[in-house]
Amino acid sequence: MKIIFAGTPHFAEKALQALLDQQANVVAVLTQPDRPAGRGMQLKPSPVKQLALQYGLTVLQPQSLKDADIQQQLAAYRADVMVVAAYGLILPQAVLQTPRLGCLNIHASLLPRWRGAAPVQRAILAGDAETGVTIMQMDAGLDTGAMLLKKTCAIEDKDSAATLHDKLAVLGAEAVTAALPLLEQGRLRAMSQDNALATYAAKLNKDEARLDWTQDAVHLDRAVRGYNPFPGASAQINDTLIRIWQASLREGVSGEPGAVLAVEKNALLVACGNGALSLEILQRPNAKALPAAQFLQGFQIRAGDRFESR
């Protein structure tokens, strides 16, 4: 089976590595153009490109797939299937129809729940008990294609978007390597999505990650976890915007929303609209993220100080 692989970040890298470990016939790899990164803003290849070059694979990095030249180039490979994982470019109908068996997407949710750009984060923010990956036959819609295979994953109480992402990346790699031989054998049953059950995982933005302390502690705990690592939950205190990277719920405590109830050895205890949140890892602008004890050595916060609500 000849495979074109399309993906860009670490999530996709896991899937490509799994295919290569099974000695799959990957005839070409599509990935996003190199982007500036780091302090020097030098061009950096994507994780998928780095892996592909290690294996001597052909790498294509078009700015768009709408041009006839790249479409003809892809068609020339006469691929049986294209595997797509967090690629980042829209696949026009001409590209979707190019492989003999179509294009399969590894989507990081249990479709039709959380179609869209940020399914991992939205699942945590919504308080979902589980999520997973769906292998989907791509069509012209946004994550609307027929479902071919699913694998589920529990969302643990301490899962952040970072830890859940890593679990789903492994699960996605397992799912696609299981799906491809079944696809080739005609043993996958396509199931249409129920559009009435669909939810949309909108792209994240920095403004929404500002904490509103009038909300209950359960909601804010999800926010801290769901916005880690991007864009990072934040709140302002003493005219400084602080990022909060780790927190935990504290039962049986209450106070005015945003008020610092106690400065403890390893945490700041802050009142919410209902309950309280124990802030454990914090970060000042242009500084490193630190455990609360170390953070407070360089930034003074006292009981009675107050975080602003957005």
Fold and architecture overview:
The protein is an alpha/beta fold and 310 residues long. The chain folds into 2 domains: 200 residues, Rossmann fold; 92 residues, Methionyl-tRNA Fmet Formyltransferase, Chain A, domain 2 (Roll). 26% of the residues lie in helices and 27% in strands. The chain contains 8 helices and 17 strands. A 7-stranded mixed beta sheet has the order 5-2-1-6-7-9-10. Strands 12, 13, 14, 15, 16 and 17 form a 6-stranded antiparallel beta sheet that branches. Strand 14 and strand 15 form a beta hairpin. The radius of gyration is 22 Å and the shape is elongated.
Number of domains: 2
Mean pLDDT: 96
H and E string: EHEEEHEHEHEEHEEHEHEEEEEEH
Please summarize the sheet with the most strands: 7 strands, mixed
Top CATH class of the largest domain: Alpha Beta
Could you tell me the strand content as a percent range?
25-35%
Q: What CATH architecture label of the largest domain applies?
A: 3-Layer(aba) Sandwich
Helices, by number, come to 8
Distance between the termini: 53 Å
- Helix fraction, binned, reads 25-40%
Q: Key features?
A:
310 residues; 26% helix; Methionyl-tRNA Fmet Formyltransferase, Chain A, domain 2; alpha/beta; Rossmann fold; 7-stranded mixed beta sheet; 2 domains
Give a quick rundown of the structure.
With 310 residues, this protein is α/β, with parallel strands linked by helices. The chain contains eight helices and 17 strands.
